Amino acid sequence: MNDEARRFLAVLQGVESPTLTTLCQRTLDLLPADGVSIALMTGTDHQGLAGSSGPLASARQDLEFTLGQGPGVDAFEQGSSVVVEDLSLTDGRWPLFSPAALELGICAVWALPMKVGEIRLGVLYLYGDEPGSIGAEHLERALTVTELITQIVIGLQSQVSSEAIAFALVESDYRAVVYQATGMISVQLGCSVDEALVRLRGHAFVAERPVDEIAEQVVDGSVRFHE
Questions:
Q1: For 48-55, what is the mean pLDDT?
Q2: Which domains does the chain have, with CATH numbers?
């Protein structure tokens, strides 16, 4: 075990059952990021459990889920780290995500895939409020932390039934309401689930609101989708 691994395990001392939120908060103790979030995924359009170091980090991570593009989407799809030191210099790579992220105060973002071999579990996000504020010299430590978090997630997942998605990691899965709403929209529009998710995301983007808030309104019937 290297020094970086020992440091991370040290900050988890006394944490009996770490949640995704706890892991994000402890990551801030080791890396000079302004925010941290984790998203577990089963595909680029299917983010499951999510956790963050705070409300702002959660809003930033949710932005990629709403828009379906960004560093984390690419990191998961490619299986390699996406390090952006200055988000204002991305040359149109993420035409929807970049301007919206800059408005939220994201100037730097690291998206590090959580994986074991070719198996991908999700993405660890590090956010910086200033260009280059995370610092390239910390990349090795960040990769070590990502690897350790991946192992912790796998360990916790092994403790639950195969039908569950690591509910030991968080108290509730706020993405569940998104999938429920997506199914309802699919029925309302007579379209595929994938198209329903696109419609839900688009509605949230236009309304400038988190996608899970719109999803809750779909589920309670206050928002309906029509052709």
A1: 79
A2: 3-169 (3.30.450.40), 176-220 (1.10.10)
